[in-house]
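Cross-posting from the chemistry board since nobody answered there.

I work mostly on the small-molecule side, so proteins are not my area. We synthesized 2-acetamido-2-deoxy-beta-D-glucopyranose and want a rough idea of how it might sit in this target. Sequence and SMILES are below. Is it possible to get a predicted 3D structure of the two together?
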Amino acid sequence: MHVILLLWCLFSLLLNPTMAQSATGISIGPARALDMMIQDYAYRAFILPRTGVPYDGTMPSNLTGIQISAMRLRTGSLRFRGIQSYKEFQIPKGIMEDSYVERLILVYQNLGNWSTKYYPLPGYTHLTPVLGLLAYDAANLSAMNLPELKIKATGNPILIHFGDTKPVPAGSSPKCVWINLNGWVNFSRPISGNTCSTVDQGHFSMVVESVSPAPGPASTSEGDGGASANPRPVIMGKSEGNKRKVWIIVGSVVGGIALLVLFASLILWAQKFNQRQKMQQMERAAEVGEALHLASIGNVKTPAAMVTRTRPVLETEYVT
Ligand SMILES: *[C@@H]1O[C@H](CO)[C@@H](O)[C@H](O)[C@H]1NC(C)=O
Ligand SMILES: *[C@@H]1O[C@H](CO)[C@@H](O)[C@H](O)[C@H]1NC(C)=O
Ligand SMILES: *[C@@H]1O[C@H](CO)[C@@H](O)[C@H](O)[C@H]1NC(C)=O
Ligand SMILES: *[C@@H]1O[C@H](CO)[C@@H](O)[C@H](O)[C@H]1NC(C)=O
């Protein structure tokens, strides 16, 4: 019985999906938890909301510096009219979502001085705060832990007009960066000046490659050079994350099989050991029994009563 229980434990450990999941999105995890929290706080800003009007929310005091806003829209108006300006975002007509909802809410984030904490990009320096634009269903304004809707710009792209950027180091050119909800990072060229474009939701910023300190003890770089000298955890690309996931799955399966084989051989060995012991016991018992038998026979000098005696013969049998 306990063997079956053990095997069951082993299998449930191997097949536990949460174990596999914890392997991916480790580095995007805190940022996604923040997204969830911002969704909650942004929704709280709504009191009798009018559509198409941005409502600024307030983050808890331990996250001062993050600005959030929420705008409720009919999906039809988003599709056919777009929004001329929502903070830094210019949203054209033609935004489509893959599941039909009547109204949606666009949550805006400006991570301010928290940008590099939640979106560290090793080898790059943020020139602007990280901005986020995420779409949610507007059906329940007190809902929490909402999943994002999938939206896409099917016509013109969404434009992001970043305001002032940090000064660009001489000789380097700024890049637009888009980080999608899985932590997938994509760089592109600005379409002009401080304007970037996107067809998808997610988080956006402008970056430059960090001035990497030249190898050698004498060199030091000023300003943001510290960022590259002290690399931070990388936001994993999707393929990288998947590869790791595959390896972890392969590893745990192989490990599991090895464990199973080990257990099986242990069980077999235990059974054999048991059998051998039983056999030995029986042998010993038999030996002891024989000895007793002999002894008892030896003690009893007179032969024991006969089991069968000669049957009495009827006299009548002779009379014929
Ligand atoms: C900030 O405080 C909230 C509760 O008010 C908590 O849930 C959250 O984890 C805190 N976040 C940080 C980054 O400290
Ligand atoms: C950002 O600035 C606020 C004050 O404006 C401060 O309370 C907060 O700790 C800062 N955040 C980080 C990550 O330094
Ligand atoms: C809205 O969401 C809240 C929090 O998740 C939940 O308690 C409530 O039942 C929901 N209301 C509706 C109408 O689904
Ligand atoms: C990444 O950006 C480039 C340039 O903007 C674009 O062509 C490509 O489709 C993007 N990749 C994804 C997965 O969207």
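Reply from a structural biologist on the board:
Welcome over. Reading the output above for you: The pocket of 2-acetamido-2-deoxy-beta-D-glucopyranose (ligand 2) is lined by residues 64-65, 113-114, 117 (CB under 6 Å). The two ends are 74 Å apart (CA to CA). Happy to explain the token format if needed.
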